[in-house]
Amino acid sequence: MSFTAALPTLLLIALALVMFGLGLSLSLGDFGRLRENPKAVALALAIQMLVLPGAAYLLIVVMRVEPVYAVGLMLLAASPGGVSANLFSHLFGGNVAMNISLTAINTVLSIVSLPLIANWAIATFVQTGQVVPLQFGKVFEVVGVILVPVAIGMVVSRQRPAFAQRMGQPMKAFSALVLAAFSIIAIAKEWTALTESFSSLGPVVLAFNLLSLLSGYYLSRWAGLDKPVATAVSFEIGIHNSTLAIFVALSVLGNFQLALPAAIYSVSMYLTATAFGFLVLRRSS
User: Residue 81: beta bridge partners?
Assistant: First the structure.
């Protein structure tokens, strides 16, 4: 098997190890405290389900996005937070337990919300008659790549607290390396699509990315949430599962153009989210 063919499997293994590292820093008490903060969960879900699709539609109208790309952007807006959201939150001081919980909840809800939003966008912008079915497979992906490794890490942390403490910094460094690898691989993989379509799609995708991050953080702070929770919500809202959007565009709808907004986003989100993370860290409150 060639390295290129093995790359998806290697990345999944790397992500699982990162999630295991996150689990070493968590306890059941961290998740138990989520019950004390239902406002954060409700706000994050409201932004994901209502604000972001509305913002994407507004950008489409204001920036006069071509219909086929408009569907692609709405598909991206409807995608839940990705695994990378947990990684960014871990690196930049977010409430990781909140991130993991939100990713799981968002992914389950997206089984229904993503087809609804995508099918509305298809009927509104291109009228092709195509339909996006329910995406049950993504729930199993979240369980396998996020929840199981995190649970194992938590068990190890409880049984071997000294080991968990000793591995804290090495796992954080490993997470940073995985993030850098993701960025490089995303750029290399989508280079042709980026160079061919960035001039027409880049501005609207970047605007949507920044709007997602900013709305997640500042609406959370405005609602009185503390900085770690606001950071978690921001990354959960700002780091979408672009892989899911690309999968639906290519495998379900069979249209490469629909995948271009998500392809550009899959690269830009690493750059904008990293810059945003350093900005948040520099803030004193």
Answer: 240
Euclidean distance between CA atoms 282 and 15, whole angstroms: 27
Query: What is the C-alpha to C-alpha distance for residues 277 and 213, in angstroms, rounded to an integer?
Result: 10
SS3 state of residue 240 = strand
Tokens describing residue 33 = 């405290």
Integer Cα distance of 38 and 41 in angstroms: 5
Contact at 8 Å (CB) between 174 and 90?
A: no
How remote is the C-alpha of 71 from its chain's centroid?
Answer: 19
What does the alpha-carbon distance between residue 228 and residue 209 come to, in Å, rounded to a whole number? 20
In sequence order, what are the residues at sequence separation of 6 or more whose Cβ sits closer than 8 angstroms to the Cβ of residue 115?
131, 132, 133, 134, 135
Rounded to whole angstroms, the Cα distance separating 246 from 174 reads: 27
Residue of 12, 252, 225 whose CA lies nearest to 102: 225
Contacts 24+ apart (CB under 8 A), 11-14: 11/181, 11/182, 11/185, 12/145, 14/178, 14/181
Give exposure, 61-81, as e/b (b: 16+ Cβ within 10 Å): eeeebebbbbbbbbbbbbbbb
For 25-84, what is each residue's pLDDT tens digit?
666 766 666 677 788 889 998 999 899 999 999 999 999 988 888 988 998 998 877 777
The residue type at 13: I
For residue range 244-271, list pLDDT tens digits in order. Answer: 777 677 666 777 777 788 888 877 888 8
Give the number of other CB atoms < 10 A from CB of residue 195. Answer: 9
Give the whole-angstrom CA distance, residue 210 versus residue 206.
6
